[in-house]
Every structure is written in structure tokens, then in C-alpha cells.
């Protein structure tokens, strides 16, 4: 039988680092990454045949749990009709209608058009291009610790404050491109105002995760998203809401929907989706008002395209997933998230480990510090080394956590009482490991 070590060694010989996306390599927790052969409901199975309760959920898409029978059947039926046509399909329209319906607040059609792409990276890259095309401006604002995919301009990391343009966050990103991205501290209104004051008439858009969830969970302060919309508009810029991770995961209309329910009244100019919208298949989307979205080719001058965009298998998975993702699904995911977050808190508190649980709807993460986390700087100022022993103790007990302290834990509607019981049983062991680190 193949071991995970053997699978990883074989992979490393032909795939850089043995992985097709870096965090899979267990770089920050050490040890051998799992090589997964199948998954069902709340569990994943590795090459040795061992099952783990999964809190990665494919990094978000598996809202319903892995391999939901109705989603799998929809994909199988679509596959039998042909894998890709390079032409329009009725399914694409159906998915766009489904998404737009979910985003209606009853006031007016805020999201009127949707274009389908294959990855979240493409969605945010296209949203930025649209914002630049619509405004005729070049500079964008993003927040430190927010991830929007790996396109050149969005990898820019924190620079030296408000007035300073960002530095490349990756080798291979030209400084001229990174220099068009201003990186600001999250939840910092003064920094946003100062950036607009320092670059009058140059800022095309602010892009923000609807609720930050890529540096651990960084929830927006109440009213912060509304402030971003108002400030962008006051200066002739657009607001791009990145719901790739939160969209259709934290609620039926994403994080934006939760804020609307809570009485916040604001509308993004453009919104990006990914992950859940494709139910585990490569699918993502950009949405917005017709006047902006219709700037896209073939109607307008902003070019964007894709051989596999709107792929019929991905669309079938997306439609099936969104149709199944009803209020009961969100209730179950919320309840499972609360159960796990509470159990993690209790286990760490019992061992006297300083920690805080950051939450944004059903998304949460643990930070090994006592104080709340509002910014990327806060997230980095923690006893991060406690996570590796915590993670490995969980893994040994049969629970697969995200292999980094800077990631959210993902629950699914398939995390039933028996899955939750396995997590609850493992947490005290992991808390002891974290305490002695
Ligand atoms: N935006 C956000 C908020 C994300 O979380 C991610 C992926 N984690 C992306 C964009 C990029 O999506 P993809 O990995 O599909 O390119």
C-alpha cells in the first residue's frame, strides 16, 4: 500500500513542491501532506485508506459536504451530454438567473449581469480591469491580509503606509504593476481617506473581501463595508466586493446578504464569486450593474474570455449546489460552526492557552493571542508556533484542519453529530499539545 510519504515523494519528482497550490504542502505545519483519494460528506480518505473528519471542505466549495449525491448525479448527466462546447448553453443562463435572484433585496436590481469564469483569480482580475476601464483610472486599493487570487496587481503586500505604493508580493511581479496597488490596513477608515487624499483622481477602485478570511478571519467592523462604498463613490471610484470565499457560504446571499439583513444599506459596484458557486468544480463569476458589466466584450471595450468559461459540468454542479443550499443548509452549517468554535474555545481555555476565536458568520479561525484580531498586523502578532502541534494532534486523532493558522475552518451541512463528536473528542488532545509547545 502507498503511504502519504511515498505519494508525496513521487509527486515532488514531477510537480513543484509536490503540490498544485502552495498551502497544500503543509509548509507552515511541517510533516507530510495527505494524499487524498476520495471524500464523502464530512470526511476525506487518504491513500492509506484512513478517513479524517474534514474541516477544509476544499477551501470552501463543499458547502453541502463532499460528493453530495445530487450534485454528483448532475455532473454525471452533464458529462454524458458532452464535456465542453465552446458555445453558449442554457445552463449558463439558468445559473446566472439563480445567482441574480439570490442577490435581490427587493429594492432594485443591483446585480443585473453575471459573467462566468473558471477561477476566483480570473474573477477579481476581470473586476479590476472593468473598474479601470469604467473609470479611466489606474490605481487600486486593497487591504493587507486580504487575498484576491494570484494576478500580478493583487499580490501586492503591505507597503510602508498610506502614501507609499505597494511593493511586489511575489518575485516576477513588475514593480510598475505592483506600484499601482495601494495596500492599506484593514478596518482603518483614516487610512482609506488618506489614500484618496494622496492620490486625487487616480484611484479606480477599492477591492475588499466581504469579510476577510485569508489571514485567519478578519471580520469587518460594523459599517466598514458601507464606509468603503461611500468613500469610493465620493471620489469617483468603484467598490469591488470579493465574495469568492464568503459568497453562498455564510448565507444565501453571501456576506452582503447578512449585512443587508442586519439593516446595513449599501451596494457594491462589482462583486466576485467563486468556490461554492461551482460546488467543487472550477467556476467563478463577476457580477454588477448592467452599465458596468456591459463594458465587457463583445458589447464593450474591456476584453475578457475563456475557452472553458461556463463549462457545462461546472455549471451543472453550481446549479445543483445552489438549488440545494436552502435555509436549512445554512442553519446546519452555522450550528456546526458554533459547536466546533465553542468546543475549540473550551479545550484551549481548559489548558490555559491564550487564544481568540475570530468569527464572521459560519467562518471562524483561532488565533493564539488573547486580544481580538482586526487587522493583518494583529493576526501576525500571535503565538503562531502553537498551531503546528495543535494541527498534528488533531490529524493524529483523525481530524484534518486547514494546514495553516492563517486559514478559516470550513464546516459543511454534512457535519452531523458523529462528525462533531469526533472533533470534540480530538480538541482536548490538541489543546494539550498547543499548551506544551
Ligand atoms: N478571493 C478570495 C476572497 C479567495 O479566498 C480566493 C481563494 N482562496 C480567491 C479570490 C482566488 O480564488 P481561486 O483560488 O479560485 O483563484
Automatic annotation (TrEMBL):
<dbReference type="InterPro" id="IPR015422">
    <property type="entry name" value="PyrdxlP-dep_Trfase_small"/>
</dbReference>
<dbReference type="GO" id="GO:0042286">
    <property type="term" value="F:glutamate-1-semialdehyde 2,1-aminomutase activity"/>
</dbReference>
<keyword id="KW-0627">Porphyrin biosynthesis</keyword>
<keyword id="KW-0663">Pyridoxal phosphate</keyword>
<comment type="subunit">
    <text>Homodimer.</text>
</comment>
<comment type="pathway">
    <text>Porphyrin-containing compound metabolism; protoporphyrin-IX biosynthesis; 5-aminolevulinate from L-glutamyl-tRNA(Glu): step 2/2.</text>
</comment>
<feature type="modified residue" description="N6-(pyridoxal phosphate)lysine">
    <location>
        <position position="275"/>
    </location>
</feature>
<dbReference type="InterPro" id="IPR015421">
    <property type="entry name" value="PyrdxlP-dep_Trfase_major"/>
</dbReference>
<dbReference type="Pfam" id="PF00202">
    <property type="entry name" value="Aminotran_3"/>
</dbReference>
<keyword id="KW-0963">Cytoplasm</keyword>
<keyword id="KW-0413">Isomerase</keyword>
<dbReference type="InterPro" id="IPR005814">
    <property type="entry name" value="Aminotrans_3"/>
</dbReference>
<dbReference type="InterPro" id="IPR015424">
    <property type="entry name" value="PyrdxlP-dep_Trfase"/>
</dbReference>
<dbReference type="InterPro" id="IPR004639">
    <property type="entry name" value="4pyrrol_synth_GluAld_NH2Trfase"/>
</dbReference>
<comment type="similarity">
    <text>Belongs to the class-III pyridoxal-phosphate-dependent aminotransferase family. HemL subfamily.</text>
</comment>
<protein>
    <recommendedName>
        <fullName>Glutamate-1-semialdehyde 2,1-aminomutase</fullName>
        <ecNumber>5.4.3.8</ecNumber>
    </recommendedName>
</protein>
